[in-house]
Amino acid sequence: MYEQISGxxxxxxxxxxxxxxxxxxxxxxxxxxxxNILIMPxxxxxxxxxxxxxxxxxxxxVLASMRARPAEASEFPHxxxxxxxxxxxxxxxxxxxxxxxxxxxxxxxxxxxPEHAVICATTGLINMMDRQELEGVIxxxxxxxxxxxxxxxxxxxxxxxxxxxxxxxxxxSGRLGGFRSRDDEGGGQLQMLWFVIGIALxxxxxxSAMLIQAAISRRREYLADASGAMLTRFPEGLANxxxxxxxxxxxxxxxxxxxxxxFISNPLREHGGSLNSLFxxxxxxxxxxxxxxxx
Amino acid sequence: MGPVVLVIxxxxxxxxxxxxxxxxxxxxxxxxxxxxxxQIDVQLRRRYDLIPNLVETVxxxxxxxxxxxxxxxxxxxxxxxxxxxxxxxxAQNQITSAxxxxxxxxxxxxxLKANENFMMLQEELSGTESKIAYARQFYNDxxxxxxTLIQVFPSNVIAGMFGFTQxxxxxxxxxxxxxxxxxxxx
Lengths: 295, 186
Fold this sequence. Notes:
The complex is a heterodimer of chains A (295) and B (186).
Chain A: H1 2-34, H2 39-65, E1 68-70, H3 77-90, E2 96-100, E3 107-111, E4 117-122, H4 123-128, H5 131-146, H6 149-177, H7 188-232, H8 235-247, H9 285-294
Parallel strand pairs in A: 2-4
Antiparallel strand pairs in A: 1-2, 3-4
Helix pairs in contact in A: 1-2, 1-6, 1-7, 2-6, 3-5, 5-7, 5-8, 6-7, 7-8, 8-9
Chain B: H1 3-59, H2 66-81, H3 84-106, H4 110-114, H5 116-151, H6 155-161, H7 174-177
Helix pairs in contact in B: 1-5, 2-3
């Protein structure tokens, strides 16, 4: 368990370095294409600012974008008690409980570390689940908190967003300027090469970033299911909860593509019968239920 | 300084370092156990404080069920005199089963079950019950890690040297693991 945690902390650091280096590289290529060397330092500054900013503010932005509000113990005693109980089970400080007023059953965790964590559930989830099922879901989220998945996945999401932004910007500036730099200099061949690399990057970088994000997210979900079951010592609770979620076809209205990977089950897609795709951020629910039942 | 001296020096340094690492590990585990114990204590106290309120509320509707009330207050006072993890655990299990019969009695009084105060106390108690279960699960896990470390070589030598002794487990009972059944769906 503890190796898992330090693994994620280490991975987060490596990811930040990799991201800044990658952004510098993209910046360099685009700078060659646009004939403006200032683009490269600009790209690095953007990368650093986004990483630092997201580290401290992304949880607040996510909560605001989903119109979540703090859960009062008087209004949701059942939910708040369960969050406190599972914090005891995990030996962690109690995360702040939040709710979203939405009938679609779902939940997510966010924050930069266990001291600044939030566990958020929809009112639909709270109303639908009995105590053991709710505890199963919260244990899954508590594992994301304990394993530092919340920090790692948050950084991954910001990077995917930043890369997409960079690619968009390349297209946009290219179209505006009509890639005029080509005829500035006589050395057209080399310039052409940089141009091709730039286009390839603008197409491939966002796609590969999304594929990597989806793959990481799927793996994390299996892991959180398993360590959540470790916390409650009752895998059936989470299995039953996932089954109820599977039967409820309603999508979550306030979720979007940028936040979908946070949730315990994909809030956008209709459940059941879906093909296992490389872009899915969540493994199929039937598969997760089956694995839990085999524990 | 010959190579033999150098090798001996290396070995001494290595041993000293391992002693320090193991010692620190033992200390931090012992502190974690103490903290886990106080977390259980907070929840036990909370339950202890909730009981008189609950008894009063139930009495308002079912004053003649004297047997149950006696059982509850007996268990409650047993908790006060209990010392050590083992005795504490047994006293707690006694309270849990007394509360179970109290809630079973309440089942027969629909008006009591509809009482808002009663419903709130019921949720609070079953919430606390579940917190106690999880807090002691965590406590026992830590005790197991700690006791194992005290028993295995080479940390057992260091534990013996600095007087680290094994901790008692907080007893788990099948009854206690199952929280009081309450229907939350209303």
